[in-house]
Write a structure and sequence with these properties.
The radius of gyration is 26 Å and the shape is elongated. The chain is 59% helix and 8% strand. Strands 1-4-2-3 form a 4-stranded antiparallel sheet. It folds into 2 domains: 248 residues; 63 residues, no CATH class. The longest helix is centred in the N-terminal third of the chain and has 43 residues. The two termini are 20 Å apart. Helix 6 runs antiparallel to helix 7.
Length: 336
């Protein structure tokens, strides 16, 4: 994904005479010097990411418009089961969108991060640049900054578009289970943080192994393991809310928009027992005879979702920033 750089001639201010385009025109002022050289090196990958992001956003915003119109018509006609009807109408499109969102970190790590430094080391570009007036630290900082900027722009735009589509019908899509990975990790700040972490892993692998294909393979393996870790629910240490009913009233009803976390039975001393402790008893009196006096429901309210996402994103982003800083420090100290 990295194109060969043209031979730059460094100037006193850290710019290069190789900043001119093929037609002899000066590049935009904001991209002169090293930023222009980095853009020229990786423009294929950067432009591809931007175009794919634009296409994905347009599709999801169109789906949002279509979904809202469908919901208005369905409610006007008194559809009985909106969850089932929405699944039939938009289930496939929604699953395709969640699949696209799951690819965002993979693309950031494998196609942007891994070749960023490894490609330069294979082609010798880094030696050509750093033997002139450009330091290794500045070269790495500009490359990392460009990749981080593209990653943030693309992942934030896709997350905003997906969230705008999902949120008005959050109680219908995925049966309202917003704690499932395909929703939790695809909305809000989470996609940006996870994409940056995968980018950082890819860059670090490229710096260490010095081979683009090997770095891409290792980064892809990290993405695969990451998805396995996130394959279940992710409560992130948040405390679930609790509802308790007397055993005669049965299980408490799940509040609107909430996600079930766990079910328990409660004895007279307040001790918790498994949900099946009183499952086979025919009457509440039989349950009380076994010492079970209440039914307990633990759940996460829909209003807890933003706090859980921001906490999770902050932890992941901290790891990404630390890894990028370590990569920059290591790259400045070691010969490239």
């Amino acid at each position: 994904m990295t194109t060969a750089a043209q031979k730059p001639v460094a100037t006193e201010g850290g710019g290069t005479a190789g900043n001119r385009t093929e037609g002899g025109k000066q590049p935009p002022r904001i991209l002169r010097g090293l930023p222009w050289l980095v853009w020229r090196q990786h423009r294929t990958a950067f432009v591809a990411c931007l175009l794919l992001t634009a296409a994905g956003c347009v599709n999801m915003l169109w789906q949002r418009h279509s979904t809202l119109g469908w919901l208005e018509r369905a409610r006007a006609h008194g559809a009985v089961d909106l969850v089932q009807a929405s699944g039939q109408a938009y289930g496939e499109a929604f699953q395709n969108a969640t699949w696209l969102m799951s690819l965002v970190p993979v693309v950031a790590g494998v196609l942007l991060g891994a070749p960023l430094i490894a490609g330069d080391r294979e082609r010798g570009t880094v030696q050509l640049v750093t033997t002139q007036s450009v330091t290794r630290g500045r070269w790495l900082a500009v490359k990392l900054g460009a990749a981080v900027l593209i990653t943030v722009v693309c992942s934030a735009a896709l997350s905003a578009a997906f969230t705008a589509w999902w949120e008005p019908a959050h109680d219908l899509f995925n049966a309202g289970d917003w704690l499932a990975t395909d929703v939790f990790a695809a909305t809000g700040p989470v996609p940006v943080a996870v994409a940056l972490l995968h980018l950082a892993v890819g860059v670090a692998c490229g710096l260490l192994v010095r081979r683009t294909l090997m770095a891409m393979g290792i980064t892809f393996g990290f993405a695969f393991v990451w998805n396995l870790v996130l394959s279940g629910e992710v409560p992130l240490g948040a405390k679930p809310r609790v509802l308790v009913n007397p055993v005669e009233e049965g299980q408490p009803a799940l509040p609107e928009g909430a996600v079930r976390h766990d079910n328990w039975t409660v004895d007279a001393q307040g001790g918790l027992h498994g949900f099946g402790e009183c499952f086979n008893e025919r009457t509440p009196a039989d349950c009380r005879a076994r010492g079970i006096v209440g039914e307990r429901l633990e759940y996460f309210g829909y209003d807890q979702m933003p706090g859980m996402q921001w906490t999770y994103a902050a932890l992941v982003l901290t790891a990404a920033v630390a890894l990028l800083a370590l990569t920059l420090w290591w790259g400045r100290r070691r010969p490239l």
